[in-house]
């Protein structure tokens, strides 16, 4: 707290300390600890459920990219919670009340007030972008890269299209000449940007 003295008395500013938020990753019958900021692949690797996706051909073990993942936390605190990003198409539930986040490039804010169940339910970017593309009235061209989702292994690009131009997510997540096509789901840094304040004036 902060005490400010003046001619009319003392102002006592009580500011609760932001609480620690512990996360779990849920989905595909899995319930494991998760670290935020972080991605589903990281939590799965730490739990021993997948190998290092950057090692040799582990990128081809693609089931984590096709799954929907939920980051969940239970805590008690008051304040405005800022997500640097949510990657990507997600429903954020605060004590069951839903809001939607559809861009990995825009910060997301929620206010919590005491005991809180916080769920960030992230749909697979592959299924979300494909659904959005099929809703569109005409085909939107996209560039092709040699990667897990688009290349048939022989450079003929007859594999599964990734429709990355229909989701607000880094295009490199779908594969690039220098990186893997992991299409991760995850959350950026989460922090309180303010807290509820109790002001007491003593005169």
Q: Which labels suit this protein?
A:
mainly beta, disordered C terminus, 3-stranded antiparallel β-sheet, 7-stranded antiparallel β-sheet, 13 strands, 203 residues
Describe this structure in words.
Helix content is 11%, strand content 38%. The chain has 203 residues and is mainly β. A hairpin with a 2-residue loop joins strand 3 and strand 4. The chain is built from 3 helices and 13 strands, in the order βββββααβββββαβββ. The C terminus is likely disordered. Strands 3, 4, 6, 8, 9, 10 and 12 form a 7-stranded antiparallel sheet that branches. Strands 1-2-13 form a 3-stranded antiparallel sheet, with no helix packed on it. A 3-stranded antiparallel sheet has the order 5-11-7.
Helix-residue proportion: 10-25%
Largest sheet: 7 strands, antiparallel
Kindly report how far apart the N and C termini lie.
18 Å
| Count of runs of 4 or more consecutive helical residues | 3
- The shape is globular
> Would you count the extended β strands for me?
13
Mean pLDDT: 83
> Which stretches of 5+ consecutive residues score pLDDT under 50?
10-14, 196-203
Q: Please state the CA-atom Rg, rounded to the nearest Å.
A: 21 Å
Structural class of the secondary structure composition?
mainly beta
Order of helices and strands: EEEEEHHEEEEEHEEE
**Strand share of the residues?**
35-45%
């Amino acid at each position: 707290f902060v005490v400010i003295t003046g001619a009319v008395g003392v102002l006592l500013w009580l500011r609760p300390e932001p609480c620690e938020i512990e996360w779990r990753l849920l989905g595909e019958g899995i319930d494991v600890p998760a670290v935020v900021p972080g991605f589903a692949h990281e939590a799965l690797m730490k739990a021993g459920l997948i190998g290092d996706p950057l090692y040799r051909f582990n990128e081809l073990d693609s089931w984590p990219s096709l799954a929907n993942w939920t980051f969940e936390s239970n805590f008690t605190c008051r304040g405005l919670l800022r997500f640097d990003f949510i990657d990507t198409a997600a429903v954020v539930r605060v004590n069951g009340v839903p809001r939607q986040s559809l861009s990995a490039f825009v910060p997301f804010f929620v206010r919590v007030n005491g005991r809180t169940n916080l769920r960030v339910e992230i749909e697979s970017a592959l299924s979300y972008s494909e659904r959005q593309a099929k809703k569109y009235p005409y085909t939107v061209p996209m560039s092709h890269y040699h990667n897990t989702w688009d290349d048939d292994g022989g450079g003929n690009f007859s594999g599964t299209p990734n429709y990355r131009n229909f989701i607000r997510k880094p295009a490199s997540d779908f594969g690039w000449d220098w990186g893997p096509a992991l299409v991760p789901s995850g959350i950026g840094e989460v922090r309180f940007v303010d807290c509820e304040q109790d002001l007491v004036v003593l005169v």
